[in-house]
Amino acid sequence: MTGLAELFQSQLVQTVLIGAALLGVVSGVLGSFAVLRRQSLMGDTLSHAALPGVCLGFLLAGGRDLGSILAGAFLTGALAALAVVLITRTTRLKTDAALGIALSVFFALGVVLLTLVQARGGAGQMGLSTFLFGQAAAILRSDLWVMAGVTAAALALVAAFWKEFKLVSFDPDFARVQGLPVLVLEIALTVMVAMAIVVGLQMVGVVLMVAMLIAPAAAARQWVRSLGAMVLLSAAFGAFSGMAGALISAQARGLATGPVVVLVASALVLLSLLLAPGRGLIWQALRARHDAQRLRGERVLLTLHGLGAAHGDPAYPSEAGMIDAFHGVTSRRALARLQARGLVRAVRHPPEETPHWELTDSGRDAARAALRRTGGDVEGRAR
Amino acid sequence: MPQGAGTDGLHEPQFALHVEDLTVSYHTNPVLWDIDLDIPPGVLAAVVGPNGAGKSTLIKAALGLVRPVAGHVRYFGQGYAAARRRIGYVPQRSSVDWDFPTDALDVVTMGLYGKLGWFRRPGRAARARALAALADVGMQDYAARQISQLSGGQQQRVFIARALVQDADIYFLDEPLAGVDATTERTIMALLRRLRDAGKTVIVVHHDLSTVRRYFDWLVMLNVRIIAQGPVSEVYTAENLRRTYGGQVALIEDLPPAPGAEGPTAEGGQDGPR
Description:
The structure holds 2 protein chains of 2 kinds. Chain A is mainly alpha-helical. In chain A, 76% of the residues lie in helices and 4% in strands. Chain A folds into 2 domains: 11-276, ABC transporter involved in vitamin B12 uptake, BtuC; 283-373, Winged helix-like DNA-binding domain superfamily/Winged helix DNA-binding domain (Arc Repressor Mutant, subunit A, Orthogonal Bundle), CATH 1.10.10.10. Chain A contains 17 helices and 3 strands. Chain A has a 3-stranded antiparallel beta sheet. In chain A, strand 2 and strand 3 form a beta hairpin. Chain B contains 10 helices and 9 strands. In chain B, the strands form 2 sheets. Chain B has a 6-stranded mixed beta sheet with strand order 5-6-7-3-8-9, sandwiched between helices. In chain B, helix 5 (124-136) crosses helix 6 (152-164). The two termini of chain B are 29 Å apart. At the A-B interface, helix 8, helix 9 and helix 12 of A face helix 4 of B.
């Protein structure tokens, strides 16, 4: 425990944590819009396409200069986005194919350039390969200012154009009809995503950066009922995964940060998919079971009602075996549940020794209500 | 954008919607060919035609969502940009993702974003208007409901309420009755009639020929070209149906009585394309 306290006091760790939190917030916020606009794969293409730019920036600056590296990443990312637009406009290829083409071509180019840089040797080439999978420890205090600037700018834009971004994400055609500059707004969102990717490259790496956009937003979507809540929760999830991943990877020597961050974020997604109330799989399975039980109970109720009608006695005591035979399965548990709800009661019907069941008054009302709802004949037999 | 000369002067202002020489094509295939269309104010108009006839494209081109290769569109004599505030739009329900995290009231409020302007959030007045529009479509009890939990008919009514708060003079609805239950259909048609009776112009892309004569008073028959247009009583003829739908007319239950002559406003001499 003292080790952990010391860890937090170390300036390096502080830098890493602040950087990871900033990256998590900005990618969580922008990722929400990207996911809702079904643009998450654009983020993947942008981040992979940043690699050749990273190498070019390195080559041109002659060293590991963050400014030129980020500029290069932004430039090739933009070129890839342009390529996607051109491919979809001029050919019959759909967006997914265009994204795949741009992603693989630019990434291949990046890997070739990376190999070239490393073959040339030099003091900084080791640092360059961290851009593939990220290395949080490589972040400098001065880098934080860049990250904070990008985050603040993105948050300010999202706050200022909140309703416009919301409408463009939900229904771009309707936004256009209302006179909103939809293309400009969409480009603004994409450019902001590209900025977030560029500042996240060092920490998470080009290969897995897209997970920082998708995972927090996908996890957040499970829990919320409004876009505002989704954006806030996604930012919190992003910050948490970033900080946890950075801390864990700092513990183990040589462990790249990106994969750890992604694993933490994916755990959040998995938990959210399973547990979220209303949308979670477990919740839905419970509800399905509840519905099945209710349906089974209703059918037993209708059978009792029908048997009563057939015998001209609404309180006709039906033998348990008869009910089972009618349904082809044992109805003991369904009857017990109905009894707990006060809709049926167990009765004796001498001289027979076997258990019998009859409808209570409220059971009769419930059966009639069910028949009316399903359009059955209230006085006649159950169908 | 259709921006003819003289946007200051009104061009054909007697029509709520005036379309001239409109042609739209995707990859050199014409989807709409040389459309001339005039719809007077205060009618409840149906646009009918077979699949692929360009019904939705006609609306989208009129609204500037699809770029025409030729032609122009005027609303009450004005160009689209000038008339934008007078236009309401109900897109096809399937055009958006209903799993978006929001509630019915919020979606209806989106109809006011254009008029609110930049940097202004919808306030109490906007909320009240959105609630009133929800009440107009019988959805006041669902204001706080997540849109993913609404039925298809309820989603459609939310979309119509969103157009109502636009407070337009001319409304375009793209298949508002597709896949809705009978109650919703009655609610929607009663609402559209009220709009028409209040002097609004309502243009509906419609797919169910059996209800055309009951629901609408103006009819546009489309199959890439305009086949016929005018009052339903004059245009809804077996001959026009055959020219619009080809051999599929046998499927239509509500065939009109055999007409003595073709409707006077039907465009004669043009053969519908195959």
